[in-house]
Amino acid sequence: MPETTPQTTHGLALREGGFARGPVPQVPHDLSPFLEWREIALPPLQSGQVLIEVIMAPVNPSDLFFVQGGYGQPRISGNPAGFEGVGRVIAAEGSAATPLLGRRVAFLGTVTGSWTRHAISDAALCIPLRDDLKDADGAALIVNPLTAIALLDEVRAQKGNAFILNAAGSQLGRLILGLAQDEGLDALAVIRRADMAEELQALGAAEVLVSTAADFPARSQAALRAHKPRVLLDAVGDQGAADLFFAMPAGARWISYGKMSDDAPSLTQMGQFIFMDKRIEGFWLSRWLPAASAERRAAVVAQVQDRFATGRWHTRIAAQLPLDRALDAILPALQGGEGKVMLCP
Ligand SMILES: NC(=O)c1ccc[n+]([C@@H]2O[C@H](COP(=O)([O-])OP(=O)(O)OC[C@H]3O[C@@H](n4cnc5c(N)ncnc54)[C@H](OP(=O)(O)O)[C@@H]3O)[C@@H](O)[C@H]2O)c1
Question: For 249-281, what is each residue's pLDDT tens digit?
Fold first, then answer.
C-alpha cells in the first residue's frame, strides 16, 4: 500500500466529450484524434469509491465505439477511457468501500476509465477476485462473461433449446459456446473464417456455419430445419444477420447486442412481425446489471470466477501493450491478433 495516495496519474485520456455527430465505424482508422497520453488529476474519493492501482485492462469493441463518441453513454473530456480492468485497491472511502482495501479486484471504470495507471471506481461494482484467477481473466471478467450468462438466460426463456450465434469466434462467442454446451443448449455458430470451425466445434458448438463458404445457404437452411432455433444472438448487425432472422421459425427473437459490421441491414419481410410474432430487440449489460437482483448478481459473479478458475473458460490474449506506448500500437495489435489486446500500466 503506498504511504500517500496519489493525487495525479497518467492514462489514455479522451480528447473530446459528449457524443459523435453521426454514426461512427466499429474500428477507427486512427486513435490519436480521440485519445492522448497525459497526466490526469484524480478527484478526491467520494463515499463508496475506491482508488485502484491498475494491473491490466482490455480493449473491447465497445471501447472503440465509446472513444469515438458512438456508444450509449457520453464521453467526459479528459477522463481516461476503458470500461473494465483488474487492479489492486490502494485507497477506499466509506464503510461500504473499506473492506476492499488491499484486495485485487475486477472493476468497471465507472468514475474514471480503466486505461490509466490509477482508476477510481464504485466499490459496489468491484469484484474481489479469487487468488487462483489469472490477471488476464480478472481484467476481462465483467463485460463479456456476465453478458454470456445474461444472453443464455434469454435463450432459455424462449421455446426450444437451439439458438444462432454469429461472430461466434469472438471472446464472448467462445464463452457462450462453452456455457451452452454445459447447459444442454444447441448453438449454431456462424463465423466468417473456415479455419476456426474445428476449434469452435470442440468448444461446444452444435453446428458451425461458415458464412463465406459457397455451401452456406444450403447448410444454414438444413441447420434451421433440424434445430428450429428461436433466438438469434447477433453481434454483427448486417444483411447476413437479417437474412438468417427472416429464415427462422415463427416466434423467433433477434437479439442485437453488438454492431461489428458497419453495413446496415434491410428488413425485407415486414409481414413476419405481424403474422409470425417475430421480434427485434436489444441487449445491453448496462441495463441488465442494475435490473438483476443482488442475489442473481452474486450467483453470476461466483459462477464466472469458478468457470475461469477451473479452466472451463479462458481469456485469449493477442498482445500485452505497455500503457504509455499503447496509443499507436492498439489498432495494429487488434488487426494482427486473435484474442484480447491488454493494456498494462
Ligand atoms: N450489449 C452488450 O452489453 C455487450 C456486452 C459485451 C460484448 N458485446 C459485444 O459483443 C461482441 C463481441 O465482443 P468481444 O469482446 O467478444 O469481441 P472480439 O473478441 O474482439 O471479437 C470480435 C469478433 O467480431 C467479428 N467481426 C468483426 N467484424 C465483423 C464483420 N464485419 N462481420 C462479421 N463478424 C465480424 C470477428 O470475426 P473474425 O474473427 O472473423 O475477424 C470477431 O470474431 C461485440 O460486438 C461487443 O460490442 C456487447
Answer: 999 999 999 999 999 999 999 999 999 999 999
CATH number for the 150-286 domain, one of 3.40.1190.20, 1.10.443.10, 3.40.50.720, 3.80.30.20? Answer: 3.40.50.720
Encode pLDDT of 98-152 as tens digits.
Answer: 999 999 999 999 999 999 999 999 999 999 999 999 999 999 999 999 999 999 9
Record the pTM.
Answer: 0.97
Could you identify the residue written with the cell 484524480? 42
- The grid coordinates of residue 301 equal 459473479
User: Which residue's C-alpha comes closest to atom 9 of ligand 1?
Assistant: 258
Which residues have CB under 6 Å of ligand 1? 60-62, 143-144, 147, 167, 169-172, 192-193, 235-236, 257-258, 260-261, 283-285
263 CA closest ligand 1 atom index: 31
Whether 150-286 and 8-140+315-344 are alike in CATH topology: the answer is no
Domain extent listing, the chain: 8-140+315-344, 150-286
Residue nearest to atom 22 of ligand 1 (CA): 170
Strand partners, 50: 92, 121
Q: Give 282-288 contacts, CB < 8 A, sequence gap 24+.
A: 282/255, 282/256, 282/257, 283/147, 283/150, 283/151, 283/154, 283/255, 283/256, 283/257, 284/72, 284/257, 285/143, 285/146, 285/147, 285/150, 286/72, 286/73, 288/146, 288/147, 288/150
The superfamily in CATH containing domain 8-140+315-344 is Medium-chain alcohol dehydrogenases, catalytic domain (3.90.180.10)
Q: Which of 142, 232, 260 most suits a substitution to test ligand 1, by most atoms within 8 Å of the C-beta?
A: 260
